[in-house]
Amino acid sequence: MAENKGLTPRGEDFNAWYNDVVLEAELADYSPVRGSMVIRPWGYGIWENMQKGLDGLFRDTGHENAYFPLLIPMSFIEKEKEHVEGFAPELAVVTHAGGKELEEHLAIRPTSETIIYHMYARWVQSYRDLPILMNQWCNVMRWELRTRLFLRTAEFLWQEGHTAHATAQEAEAEALQMLNVYRRFMEEWVAMPPVTGMKSESERFAGAVRSHSCEALMQDNRALQAGTSHFLGQNFARQFDLKFQSEAGQEEYAWNTSWGVSTRLIGGMVLTHGDDVGIVVPPRLAPVQGVVVPIWRKEEEAVAVREKSDEVAARLKKTGVRVKVDGRGHLTPGAKFWEWERKGVPLRVEIGPKDLAKEQVVLVRRVTSGEEPRKEFLPEAQAVAEMPGRLEAFQGALLQAARDRREANSHRGITDFGQLQEIMDGPGGFVYTGWSGDPAVEERVKAETKATLRVIPDPEFRSATAPTRCIGGGDAKMEVVWAKAY
Amino acid sequence: MAENKGLTPRGEDFNAWYNDVVLEAELADYSPVRGSMVIRPWGYGIWENMQKGLDGLFRDTGHENAYFPLLIPMSFIEKEKEHVEGFAPELAVVTHAGGKELEEHLAIRPTSETIIYHMYARWVQSYRDLPILMNQWCNVMRWELRTRLFLRTAEFLWQEGHTAHATAQEAEAEALQMLNVYRRFMEEWVAMPPVTGMKSESERFAGAVRSHSCEALMQDNRALQAGTSHFLGQNFARQFDLKFQSEAGQEEYAWNTSWGVSTRLIGGMVLTHGDDVGIVVPPRLAPVQGVVVPIWRKEEEAVAVREKSDEVAARLKKTGVRVKVDGRGHLTPGAKFWEWERKGVPLRVEIGPKDLAKEQVVLVRRVTSGEEPRKEFLPEAQAVAEMPGRLEAFQGALLQAARDRREANSHRGITDFGQLQEIMDGPGGFVYTGWSGDPAVEERVKAETKATLRVIPDPEFRSATAPTRCIGGGDAKMEVVWAKAY
User: Fold this and answer.
1) Domains, in order of start, for chain A
2) Cβ separation of B108 and A118 shorter than 8 Å?
3) Is A405 in contact with A216 (CB distance < 8 Å)?
């Protein structure tokens, strides 16, 4: 393995720290293909756990998985006017295949609304065929100029849900339901509590009527758009002739939604919980939740501590904990500790010759909220029995810390443009202000502070007192959240 | 949903039957992109169960999942001489992206040896970094001229395992181990027992030293290459500079293997078990193992039979059975029976008003081996308790039937070319003969009978008496298996 180069401290250069930690935790690596990355087993294992969690929530809400083609005829993408404007500049295009130039060029999907609604149109005749509630897990491609591991890559993995409904109300309810599924997943699994709300027109998905978003605040006080859910109205249904016969016998266009989250969530996890030692993986996402490290000096001690380590690991496995014994002989215990801390394993169990005699183990937390000790000596049986509960507590503490940080860096009741500017020039964070609804204000804020309108927050995120003044002057029509964004 | 067009009987036109049944069972549909198909939820659910089964076997043998880029620089594919000859004619090429022509054109991966071994070369320094045992689940693209749903599509889903080892012996053992993992999966999950063996030089993977294959015999007596495992020697390691420092301090090239199975397995499942009614899904692969159909005539009966159906389903779920209640009000029971039989659900439970009174259910098998009745009246408690065992028996009966059929259509001890010709012109099947090892014999067999050399069978598949005469005349060096193939 590559020599440890050490991590740039966050306080010195946050962006450099992020790149270092993603590489050094072996989450991902650069590839020889511009803008594409390799997701290494540790990163992919986290993604698999994300998939499991999300997939369960999708199924519980009645969705089925399917798979649609990677390549989309250019004519399809060109059908929805806003859609092609939004995606055309980022397309990767297959012009030749099988040794010949193709009659119609094919785009690698940047998202699959067009081809999916084309297929739905073949499958739907009557209202009885609705709703269609499908999701696909796949790769997509958007030719981005500036790329960052996980946060913005030309190719990324994601899921895209696509639904068709008989009524606008049902589709709108679906879009909101899935926004809340995302929010719940980000809170309960990623321990990354987002603010949810609606996008302004300028930030809307290309082709949507309304876009809803989960915006999470990273440690550097920049916002990460971590998941979006769109009410597409009948825009795509009209272009792809997705019609059905209603119960009353009328021919009507269906109403669509689409919603997606991607491997960007892994970047969000790193930016939410990581520290100068490495990443921190929330237990529900950790491929290894507890690592058992046998410690020995003399060769004659090795057998006993390794056996005990295997035994403890087997007992932990029975309690449902994902556990790994690191028995490598050519590394010092210190090197192992360092590696697993860098990779963010929540709990470490150390077992040495002295612990054997005392029937105890040493339990070390990857991070502590300050209330618990980082390191504890515990009777072996107690450590095993308490492990699932400790992992849950660890998960909860991460969420609480992230929520506290978000709130501490949310600035409410800002009415003065200079104040907004000052915050954005200084610490950053979420700034709540009034807004008239005028796009010119968004343009001015962006030009002068680099912040963008993240969301028009959902009711529970709004300030107790509704703002009356727009940050750009004049009356406010609504409250909005500004932040610099990834 | 589209009107039922009925299935072409197998005896009338086997190929037409296959296309009909794949479409009518809603496994897949044609897409507007030439050679690409849509995998519908029922087909994708079967694929997900295949993934679960295989993934467990891969993990049990020490493999980890990762993800590598979709696009591969053309220069990479051109590095390994045989590899480029094998794959160049089938490549789909991205020439433009982000609105510009690319300096280096990029191929959509037809397989990922090149880019993966390039990455391994970055990660491996010493023998301590070996073996690397990785697998990826992904889509690949091969621009085929003649395509068939699942069996041969331009885009398909698969897994590709790629390993690197310090010694040739270890790599060869890995290639054989994975061949056996595939065999076991095909037997125990797909109930499609393959013959395993080695490919002749002419049928070898482009770039491999040795290719091992699982060849299964379909109902029309054609062979399906259902999974392959390759010992790559140092061919790719040399081209991609995949070197390591040995324990003795020498710089050496690593030894590689690669192995893959794809959504083609779904086609194999259909061609192995399907009948004129529809497909038959082995219980271990079935998204729904038991469907419960409440039956009522009068509206006042509906509530009670639906309640009972939900109750029975809940009890079945507790025994670990994947179960679904089909309570749709606008379809007759007959229409539901027909739909689920077409989709191959192994067992059906019918519950009507008379059954309620008797505390019984009607249990119907999708297929029967002839020893059991197709339809039974059973006390409700017994039906629930016996369901897991009955599903296991169903799975076992499918395997036995497929094995019997394979053996009944295997022709051993054939020494005369005319006989081979007669079998291939007639019933088809696996024909075992001697072979001198001369490729000219393969060419003659192919030209005159359309059969190809499927494998040089592994020991346990060889005939009791080794053949002494080559089918093309002269002495035999080995026994081989011929068949017409998909």
Assistant:
1) 14-273 (3.30.930.10), 289-393 (3.40.50.800), 410-483 (3.30.110.30)
2) no
3) no
B59 and chain A in contact, CB less than 8 A: no
CA-closest candidate to residue A28, choices A182, A142, A146, A152: A152
* Chain A residues inside the 8 Å CB shell of B66: 38-41, 44
Q: Return phi, psi of residue A146, to 5°.
A: -105, 120
B33 contacts in chain A (CB < 8 Å): 69, 71-73, 106, 115
Distance between CA atoms of B116 and A335, rounded to whole angstroms? 28
Strand, coil or helix: A465: coil
Q: Percent helix, strand and coil across chain B, each rounded to 5?
A: 40, 30, 35
> If contacts are CB pairs under 8 Å, which of residues 248-277 in chain B contact chain A?
none
Residues of A in contact with B23 (CB under 8 A): none
CB atoms B1 and A97 under 8 Å: no
- Classify A195 as helix, strand or coil: strand
Annotate A251-305 with DSSP letters as a single string. EEE-EEEEEEEETHHHHHHHHHH-BTTB----GGG-S-SEEEEE--SSHHHHHHH
Alpha-carbon torsion A466, A472, A477, A481, what sign? negative
List the pLDDT tens digit at each of the 486 positions of chain B.
Answer: 334 458 999 999 999 999 999 999 999 999 999 899 999 999 999 999 999 999 999 999 999 999 999 999 999 999 988 888 888 899 999 999 999 999 999 999 999 999 999 999 999 999 999 999 999 999 999 998 899 999 999 999 999 999 999 999 999 999 999 999 999 999 999 999 999 999 999 999 999 999 999 999 999 999 999 999 999 999 999 999 999 999 999 999 999 999 999 999 999 999 999 999 999 999 999 999 999 999 999 989 999 999 999 999 999 999 999 999 999 999 999 999 999 999 999 999 999 999 999 999 999 999 998 888 999 999 999 999 999 999 999 999 999 999 999 999 999 999 999 999 999 999 999 999 999 999 999 999 999 999 999 999 999 999 999 999 999 999 999 999 999 999
Q: Between the CA of residue A390 and those of A275, A314, A315, B289, what are the distances in Å?
A: 21, 18, 16, 38
Query: Beta-carbon neighbour count of residue A30 at 10 Å?
Result: 16
Comparing C-alpha atoms, which of B190, B459, B316, B36 is closest to residue A107?
B36
In one-letter notation, the amino acid at residue B31 is S
Report the SS3 class of residue B17: helix
Q: Which residues of A touch B48 (CB under 8 A)?
A: 65
- CA B476 from chain centre, in angstroms, equals 32
- Contact yes or no for A44 and B32 at CB 8 A: no
